[in-house]
């Protein structure tokens, strides 16, 4: 492979959202040239990538044409055109993660099947073609309340997920091929970011704990480290290692896990890229998840994942009910919070609960960091 840290090396990234932006920033520290494909000419990576190609990462021709002259191709979103990537792989291009892993992860049904085939703990599930089939299974008693229905493809941030507690929720069922999962009595939701490089070296970041916005069903706060036992920490790490090894995965994988009220751990789902649950690694760990992703796909040794200081990450979400040109109200007050680092993604338009940025508060004491993060939540309002 061409030397990655050299003036003529081209790293192609499918997707130019905030994850792409932070990846391009990390690459720029090493003088690695980044080329991004995104349909939005004003996407967050616009100002940070070496070059932006405007086009759809779901379109065969656009992805194939984009990939042709790149040295390594990676993704910051999993819903990309696999056929074009497969063709590029066949022609000898390095695509990390590879299309075998991406095609399993793209489809929540294949993902669940992969866990059960490889003895990786996950909630019981069944695959369905239509909502009519689910209703029949309920009548036959093979599906029982409560359960969670997930569309096999296209969902994100809680979209494409329906929680069905009883018959009265059946109108919430989503049409399309789906997975029906047994409802887990969740005590904690945690995540582990794991990296595996081209030589098979594996490293996990310590687990983090997520707290959700009850209305938007997406992560509001993230705490690092997670308040879990050493046994749970080890179990989470073992599950994460087992997934990347069974997938023969190269790159960064975010593993979302549940711990239930009986202390049992289940894999919920994975994402084959940098992830919201690793933002705090930029300030709170020796190596950031973005640097680790680059190390893993560019053939370098993996960096230390140790925590340097406890941290709380808060997603800066569009205020409910506002849509239009974005205004960050209260920023001046929040800038006085000691240890708070702000990342504003550069999206021009805000919408209810849209992820517009994040802040990480680092502090010797996690409880103090939580208080500071709450201050930011109360004072920083993303309005139009
Ligand atoms: P997305 O890909 O949209 O983030 P997830 O699969 O992570 O979808 O589901 C979103 C949220 O729904 C989870 O974070 C969790 O709170 C809840 N959830 C998902 N699956 C289950 C389950 N089997 N039991 C209980 N809650 C679940």
Care to describe what's here?
- This protein folds into three domains: 10-95, Rossmann fold (3-Layer(aba) Sandwich); 124-182, 2-Layer Sandwich (Dna Ligase, domain 1); 186-383, ATP-grasp fold, B domain (D-amino Acid Aminotransferase, Chain A, domain 1).
- It has eleven helices and 22 strands.
- The strands form five sheets. Strands 10, 11, 12, 13, 14, 15, 16, 19 and 21 form a nine-stranded antiparallel beta sheet that branches. A five-stranded parallel beta sheet has the order 3-2-1-4-5, sandwiched between helices. It has a four-stranded antiparallel beta sheet with strand order 6-9-7-8, with helices on both faces.
- By secondary structure, it is an alpha+beta fold.
- The relative contact order is 0.12.
- The longest helix has 18 residues, at 230-247.
- The structure holds adenosine-5'-diphosphate (ADP).
- Adenosine-5'-diphosphate binds at residues 123, 148, 150, 155-161, 181, 183-184, 186, 189, 217, 256, 268-269.
Specify the CATH class of the largest domain.
Answer: Alpha Beta
How many β-strands, per DSSP? Answer: 22
The CATH superfamily name of the largest domain is: ATP-grasp fold, B domain
CATH architecture of the largest domain: 2-Layer Sandwich
Q: Give the averaged pLDDT, no decimals.
A: 96
Bound molecules: adenosine-5'-diphosphate
CATH-defined fold name of the largest domain: D-amino Acid Aminotransferase, Chain A, domain 1
Percentage of residues assigned to helices: 25-40%
- Share in β-strands: 25-35%
What class would the helix/strand composition place it in? alpha+beta
Largest sheet: 9 strands, antiparallel
Whole-number tally of structural domains = 3
Shape: globular
DSSP helical segment count: 11
Termini separation (Å)? 47 Å
Radius of gyration: 21 Å
Q: Any low-confidence stretches, pLDDT <50, length ≥5?
A: none
